[in-house]
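From the methods appendix. Each design record in this collection lists the tokenized structure first, followed by the designed amino acid sequence. Records were kept in a plain field format so they could be parsed without special tools. The example shown here is representative of the layout used throughout.

RECORD:
FOLD TOKENS (151 positions):
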């Protein structure tokens, strides 16, 4: 089997964290309005937005390549402001046997942080680690922050 691993980053943000949690837990389709050059669309294919067990479909561009990601919303934890997305179809599964993205809002004393974690299993030992996807998640975070700071 491939190499299993986890990448985790924390991004300190200036806008209120609840905006992030609500966005990724129940309004992921709004992300494409905020950063259309990265995220072109997000539709729900099964169930409904905001419900664990729902399946959502992203169209996005990463490193200039148009990609798709079909994700199972595995968990929405309102108390811990955490959402877990398991990729079940799409470009990422060409390189990874499994790929799960976790986004969590962490209120700290004066500021709020958005924690992104990627749990993965590489298909091939010589394959890349998902650092570009993590960059993408951070860039999307900055776009959302900028959008809400000017609003
Ligand atoms: C790289 C896959 C994208 C579609 C992940 C999205 C969060 C689950 C994106 C909005 C960061």
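DESIGN:
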């Amino acid at each position: 089997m491939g190499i299993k691993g986890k990448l985790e980053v924390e991004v300190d943000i200036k806008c209120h964290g609840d905006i992030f949690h609500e966005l990724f837990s129940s309004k992921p389709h709004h992300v494409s309005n905020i950063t259309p050059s990265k995220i072109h669309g997000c539709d729900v294919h099964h169930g409904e937005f905001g419900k664990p067990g729902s399946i959502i479909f992203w169209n996005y561009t990463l490193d200039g390549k148009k990609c798709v990601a079909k994700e199972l919303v595995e968990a929405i934890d309102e108390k811990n402001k955490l959402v877990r997305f398991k990729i079940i179809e799409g470009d990422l599964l060409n390189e990874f046997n499994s790929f799960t993205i976790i986004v969590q809002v962490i209120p700290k004393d004066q500021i709020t942080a958005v924690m992104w974690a990627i749990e993965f299993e590489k298909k091939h030992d010589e394959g890349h680690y998902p650092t570009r996807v993590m960059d993408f998640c951070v860039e999307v975070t900055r776009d959302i922050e900028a959008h809400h700071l000017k609003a």
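APPENDIX NOTE: Strands lie at 4-13, 39-46, 55-62, 65-77, 82-90, 96-107, 112-122.
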